[in-house]
Amino acid sequence: MKKFIQFIFKIIAILILTLVLLDVLYTVIYLNSNSRTKIDYLYNSKDKNYDVVFLGSSRVNNHFVPKIFNDYGYKTFNFGLTRSRLEESSLMLKMMVERNYKIKNLILQVDLNINTNDHSEAIRSLFMPYLQQSKTIRNHYKNISEYNQLLYVPFYRYMNYDARIGFKEAFNTAIHKKTNALDNDGYYPLMKNQKKLIPADLSKYYPKKNKAYEEIKIICKKNNINLIAITTPMCKSTINREYFDQIKLIYPEIRNFENAVTDDKYFASCGHLNNKGAIEFTKVIFSSYFKPKETH
I need a labelling partner for 81 at 20 to 30 A (CA). Which of 40, 64, 275, 293 fits? Predict the structure, then answer.
């Protein structure tokens, strides 16, 4: 019986040691990557200086063309993350401050993402490799229910989020297999132009006070960042466009641009501009808030 108990303890010890070694291996891999996602690029960079940074969901990732700003003499980057919510935008901004980024202007998408205070599980997972190293990330997630397991149980976070940061992603990261996430200064163009758009229905959307947006406003004020909060285009057949007016009732400072581009030829889907639409929309935003620094 004694030998059996010793055998069990050895198996447990080997298992724990294996988990610790795997945790260290995966973490080292992610700490040495800056070309797979915008999050690893952000974490593994510092002291960046930007005239303009874009934050938001796919309605930023696919809508803002940094080249237009850059051609007018502005240094910009699109940090929009498809599937993200304002909570992730808040954490991205906190990380920029942690990494000593100098940002003059933040253009923040606040429209469909303001109807919830929830998070994006898919995007949350991408921050997990840096949980132990980043005080900012730890503080941001310290109140979530599984925080202790994610922080203290070896390899738990990689198993829990295996679909996003598991073996396949770790392997691709280890061999420095690049993605298109950082191409075009973070802008991802949608080329498809549907012949007939399916109307988006916003009748179940209810804008409300948003904790992450409030955090972003405080961070910007503290760090002398000019915050430009805007709504972004929807196709003209969108149901319940009054939703955008309701946002203004809660946050009057948010400027409405959902009608800046409405022609169906500029949309890949009702809620996402194609490349031509993104170019037109970016020009509208630039002319609304900025002037050329140098000849175009």
Answer: 293
What would the DSSP string read from start to end of 248-288?
HHH-TTSBP-TTS---GGGEEETTEE-HHHHHHHHHHHHHH
pLDDT digits 0-9 by tens, 97-128: 999 999 999 999 999 999 999 999 999 999 99
Helix (H) or strand (E) holding 86, with range, is helix 86-98
Query: Tokens representing 128?
Result: 């997990």
> Where do we find the tokens 């009054």?
242
What is the identity of the amino acid at 292? P
296, 269 in Cβ contact below 8 A?
no
> By CB neighbour count within 10 A (0-12 exposed, 13-18 middle, 19+ buried), where does 195 fall?
exposed
- The residues facing 49 across adjacent strands are 102
Which H or E run contains 121? helix 121-127
- C-alpha to C-alpha distances, 113 to 168, 194, 267, nearest whole angstrom: 30, 24, 19
Which two tokens mark 197?
């758009």
Question: Is-contact 108 78, C-beta < 8 A?
Answer: no
Helix and strand numbers, DSSP H then E, in the chain: 14, 6
Residue 220's identity, in one-letter code, is C
Helix (H/G/I), strand (E/B), else coil: 224: coil
Q: Which of 286, 287, 285, 265 is nearest to 274 (CA)?
A: 265
